[in-house]
Amino acid sequence: MRRILRILVPVAVVWAAVVLFLQRVWFYRDPVRVAPRDEDAVVSPCDGQVVYIRRVEDGVIESEKLGQKIRVSEITHAEWPDGAIPGTGWLIGIYMSPLDVHYNYAPVAGRITGIEHTGAKANLPMVDLWEYVQLTWLRRAVDLFAKRYALENERQTVFIEGRVKIAMVEIADKFVNKIRTYVQVGDTLAPGQKVSFIERGSQVDLFLFSEDVDFEVSVGDQVYGSQTVLARLR
Q1: What global pTM score does this model have?
Q2: Are 56 and 159 members of one domain?
């Protein structure tokens, strides 16, 4: 018994040290990111996997899962600061696993016209165990569009206006503690500038309101904040 304990105790200590390192050090890493010098580029707002790319028509997105139309405001939980109803564009969903860098970055140059935070009594889990394994460890695409968490969980929406209108929706997972924000309304952002940090697992939904867009990524692609070009404006 003592022999077994002499083996198990060091293993348990090492395991606890690794877990503590991952949770308290690795998760909070802040690598240097340099955005590409391309005025037409829309860079990824975060690290993660692209889980959906959906067309927005007259301010709504068709949901095959729910068999209904979802309004942009149901995801942003806020109306556009200037009161205008968003028209035609695109919605890109990026799932951030616990292994990804959790800083968020400005996808384009522009001015912040609004920041809206919406709390929730209890956040829903984003994925079940098998979906978590596929997304985090197997890096396989899972369509997460129109799941309840995307409509109900705590979120922060950052509105940016430059060449195009952008709404960056940071959605919290069940175990998220908080969203740290490093910018404020009225700030002018450079592409790739650090905007915020989301704790634990999370997701960023990026609304891009422009018809003249050529996508550089597809569903299932791994992207990196401030570095990967999601699309180019014509």
Answers
A1: 0.90
A2: yes
